[in-house]
Amino acid sequence: MMKEGRIFLYVSPNVLLPIMFLVMVFTSLSVHYSVLSNTTWFADFFQGSAAEAVVAEAEAATVTEVAAPAAEVAAPVAEAAAPAVAETAPAE
Known about the structure:
Layout: H1 13-38, H2 41-47, H3 49-87
């Protein structure tokens, strides 16, 4: 048998259950209030602007990182290909 169930021998369930429910609701509301009032990102998260800013920032960083090495690699390839194009015979 449940040991926790013995509390109802001393306190009526009509009294204890509503009190326990109210304590749970109060605790939940206080935790949610503290998260909403003590964070700076939560309002932006609900508006959807924070995720878009992070994605746009990440894409810009990726494009910059990818473009720089591609330009460095393309320069020697272009130099090597230039004489080959000049040596070919013109089409008649």
